[in-house]
Write a structure and sequence with these properties.
It is a single chain. This protein is mainly α and 296 residues long. The chain has one domain. About 7% of the residues have low confidence.
Length: 296
Amino acid sequence: MTIYIAAATVFLFIQHRLPESSRIALDFYEPYQLGWYGAVNKLFVAVVLALVLYPFRRLLDDRRRGVLVLFTALWGIALLGNLDPRPGSIEGMIYTTTSLGEHLLVLLVGGLQFLLVSWGFVRWQSSAQSGEKLPEQDISPEYPSGGRLKGYLLRFTLVHFLVYQIVGSLFYQISGYEEALATMEAFSLWRPLESLTMVAAVFFGQIARGMLLALFFSPFYKVFISRKQGWLMLFGLLVGLKVFSTSSLIPESWSFEVQELLVGLPEVFAQTLVFALLFFSWERRRIGKKSEVALS
């Protein structure tokens, strides 16, 4: 919390000195907040992150690799890969009129904040366990031996892209997105979705986003793919990092928040669940076939 307050203080100092025309999205989304509301929300977010990262805690035991793994999760997945089109996220770069300067400011301050959090937590965790005798386990966060990174990237990106397009198209038809885009304040900074430029941006943007997410998730691959219920671990990690990590879990206005959640949250959960099931099943089937060939 101390690091967040320091980051928020620096961020807000810079934000308030920008011309109003250069901080429209920052004023609207308020990525950093001071006061009780921001503090309570960040405490809830911290609890959610602790829960979804707990099954992967052994990856954080190594001081050098642990910092990189945690930073990758917090900055790469939770901020850059977040499903909410806020400043600093790829979704925000694709769908909203947020300026490049606003995105860069959030990414820079967020990067420094998450780097300090990762470094401090991993050192604390390592010091707390220094006197404990832990069972010998392979805690390497690297991609599984024998796996090809190129193939993994292609499979992850393909499943991500197809699920995003299909589930997104279905919910666009059944969830009243057209009315929401025209009437809800949450969509006031969105670009027009009907133009060919926007269609191309979504198409190529999601391919790039899928590949980046594949890289960011690769340290966790060995853990969830080796578990029978690994799809559930992957689903929890996806939801916790990509959905709740930068969202306001305690709404300022219940009527507004409920309306917004009813429009977007069902699609997010459906998309995330379908992706986790399909990707996990594909990977387990592929690994099973390779094992059968090796034994034959």
